[in-house]
Inverse folding.
RNA sequence: GCUUCCUUAGCACAGCAGGUAGUGCACUUCACUCGUAAUGAAGGGGUCGCCGGUUCAAAUCCGGCAGGGAGCUCCA
């Protein structure tokens, strides 16, 4: 990155990051830090080498770190505005986040009107352009200072810092906030901001704590970027599966049926059926799986052995009362123990392993009432579940194969670029949540880490996200609201075989514990459908479309021919229908497009006479007249190869 | 589970200083038999989410419940 220095010369730095570090070290620029910074190994007063405007550009516009500084400063301005309008509120925390910033207040709930007023107050503060001045206090004085100001949350935060800590504060005008910085030099550096919403949020993220009021806002380097961002938010919400999926009649919900229990409608089922058949055939024919079909419920005894009764009872639907009933059942929240008993049905040799059990299994999880969302978080769902029973020496290879299968599925669906990989680890500080010895956890986590590293898959590590019986790889995707959902999970389980006394006989005739991999190919079908709706805005790849072709006769005179075309395509397994209504062709095309049908076949006098069809596709628009057999071959190939055709025409009407 | 907003016809919405409901699309019927994104006309459809309260009178005000949205928490 090139920086213009005060003497007019241009200096090149290794990376944007190094420049940002430098800029943060400027005290009289727009960032407030120590006066000296390091430039290529030399300690210098940075004010002497970098122009203020230049730093502003670096900080605000072209670097995410800089944008964070702007947003963080904006959160202070927000807090100042709130304090001005509502002097009695108590301040909690106010960090910058990926999309902007928020600030938590102990206050009465804010209305949209309040937010508008706060925004106006922010405008005044920014216009006034107070400097942000940093000062520090020893811990004890800092506590006294915040106690005097009547800010109990700040006091609590400072008390958590080490005894010898020097606490830093930032002040603009008469507003002071506990903060590590960095900040803009002046509130004037904020050019484009907006308060977007408010909601409740627990103090320190713990549901047993008081609920505070959070105000979310966004800020960008320029008004144009802010506008573009807000527009983008609007646009992607049009893809929201929860809206689009209902509009497209893929699913619905009914209040008397209950929360988290969506009804899949014929078109939605068609998509899921297509996915399910694909996954089952793939697993069985190409990846060595065998299929099971096990009960949807079991006696509590089963879950006591698996550990679910102790670790997951709140999440299960329990049928019966332990006090009164002789037998208590529970709907299954997973398939693991059921498939273990399939394994245990007969004694296994080391030669039998690995065994890969697959099941398209319906599961039930009693989610809290506030957790349900469309098709992504439901109480009953169906998953491409499977358990691999393997010898320890086969574990790494099988785990890799599971990753490869998952990757294949993602690639086929065209979503491989949209996922992030997570190594979900246990939490050593919360051992009670997990079974097994710490050494086993550390070891298995290292195995997974090695595998991901070897396969050159970028991943992040999440503490406390493991299953209670083992660490896992979660493959996540973001929904239109930016929240991550797990689409695929592959779990390393060295513990449950013990619980269920599973073994195989090795070369020496000894009983040996197998390892288990819990995994999914494509995760939960409902969630996958939701993901695909949002990914493709309802314009699914042809092979997944519930209606792939609609035949549009010009008038009723050509119905016979339209029926023939339908019959021919049906014979070839194409999802096809005929619009038999006596409407104008323009109207039928409009309706077919709104129904997001990829191929429209217009048939009239010419087509009937020549045995052809006039093809209009969502991909190219008018594709011209084709022999019916040619079109049939083409679409069958597209479906068979699961091609994701590019949409090259945009007809937004 | 917590905070907050919302619920009027299949869908999108209007009506609301309290006097028992409207518009557009959709749907049905009829006419038109049509060449690439909306042919015209007529018609049917809602005890205003449910239960209760205030009132002579409630879609409208109040309370509870259910369902839906956003956020928080949770997600084996």
């Amino acid at each position: 990155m090139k920086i213009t220095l005060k003497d007019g010369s241009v200096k090149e730095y290794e990376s944007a990051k190094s420049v940002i570090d430098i800029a943060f070290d400027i005290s009289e620029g727009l960032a407030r830090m120590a006066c000296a910074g390091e430039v290529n190994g030399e300690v210098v007063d940075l004010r002497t080498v970098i122009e203020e405007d230049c730093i502003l550009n670096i900080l605000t516009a072209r670097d995410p770190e800089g944008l964070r500084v702007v947003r963080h400063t904006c959160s202070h301005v927000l807090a100042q505005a709130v304090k001005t309008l509502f002097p009695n509120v108590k301040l909690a925390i106010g960090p910058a986040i990926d999309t902007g910033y928020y600030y938590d207040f102990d206050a009465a709930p804010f209305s949209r009107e309040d937010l508008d007023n706060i925004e106006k107050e922010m405008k005044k503060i920014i216009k006034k352009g107070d400097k942000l001045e940093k000062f520090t206090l020893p811990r004890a004085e800092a506590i006294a200072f915040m106690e005097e100001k009547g800010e109990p949350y700040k006091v609590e935060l400072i008390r958590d810092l080490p005894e010898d800590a020097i606490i830093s504060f930032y002040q603009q005008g008469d507003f002071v906030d506990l903060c590590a910085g960095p900040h803009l030099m002046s509130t004037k550096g904020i050019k484009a901001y907006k308060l977007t919403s408010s909601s409740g949020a627990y103090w320190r993220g713990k549901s047993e704590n008081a609920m505070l009021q959070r105000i979310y806002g966004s800020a960008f380097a320029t008004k144009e970027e802010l506008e573009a961002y807000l527009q983008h938010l609007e646009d992607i919400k049009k893809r929201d599966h929860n809206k689009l999926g209902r509009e497209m009649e893929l699913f619905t919900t009914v209040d008397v049926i209950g929360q988290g229990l969506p009804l899949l409608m014929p078109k939605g089922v068609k998509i899921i059926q297509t996915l399910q058949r694909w996954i089952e055939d793939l697993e069985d024919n190409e990846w060595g799986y065998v299929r099971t079909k096990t009960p949807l419920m079991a006696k509590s005894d089963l879950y006591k052995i698996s550990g679910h009764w102790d670790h997951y009872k709140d999440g299960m639907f329990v049928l019966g009362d332990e006090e009164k009933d002789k037998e208590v059942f529970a709907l299954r929240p997973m398939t693991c123990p059921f498939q273990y008993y399939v394994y245990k049905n007969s004694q296994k040799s080391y030669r039998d392993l690995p065994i890969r059990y697959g099941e398209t299994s319906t599961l039930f999880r009693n989610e809290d009432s506030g957790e349900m969302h469309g098709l992504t978080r439901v109480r009953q769902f169906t998953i491409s579940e499977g358990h691999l029973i393997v010898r320890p020496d086969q574990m790494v290879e099988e785990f890799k194969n599971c990753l490869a299968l998952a990757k294949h599925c993602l690639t086929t669906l065209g979503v491989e670029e949209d996922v992030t990989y997570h190594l979900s680890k246990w939490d050593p500080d919360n051992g009670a949540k997990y079974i097994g010895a710490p050494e086993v956890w550390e070891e298995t986590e290292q195995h997974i880490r090695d595998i991901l590293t070897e396969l050159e898959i970028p991943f992040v590590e999440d503490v406390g996200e493991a299953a209670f019986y083992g660490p896992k790889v979660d493959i996540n995707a973001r929904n239109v609201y930016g929240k991550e959902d797990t689409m695929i999970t592959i779990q390393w389980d060295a513990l449950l075989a013990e619980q269920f006394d599973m073994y195989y006989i090795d070369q020496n005739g000894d009983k040996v514990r197998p390892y288990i991999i819990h995994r999914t190919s494509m995760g939960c079908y409902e969630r996958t459908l939701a993901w695909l709706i949002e990914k493709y805005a309802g314009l699914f790849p042809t092979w997944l479309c519930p209606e792939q072709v609609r035949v549009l006769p010009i008038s009723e005179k050509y119905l016979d021919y339209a029926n023939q075309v339908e019959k021919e395509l049906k014979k070839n397994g194409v999802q096809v229908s005929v619009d038999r209504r006596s409407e104008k062709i323009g109207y039928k095309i409009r309706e077919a497009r709104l129904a997001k049908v990829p191929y429209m076949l217009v048939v009239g006098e010419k087509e009937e006479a020549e045995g052809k069809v006039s093809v209009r596709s969502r991909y190219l628009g008018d594709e011209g007249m084709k022999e019916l057999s040619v079109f049939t071959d083409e679409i069958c190939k597209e479906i068979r190869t699961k091609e994701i055709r590019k949409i090259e025409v945009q007809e937004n009407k």
Q: What stands out?
A: Chain A has a mean pLDDT of 87. Chain A has four domains: 2-61, 66-237, 259-535, 542-640. The CA atoms of residues 396 and 447 of chain A lie 8 Å apart. The first strand of chain A starts at residue 2 and ends at 4.
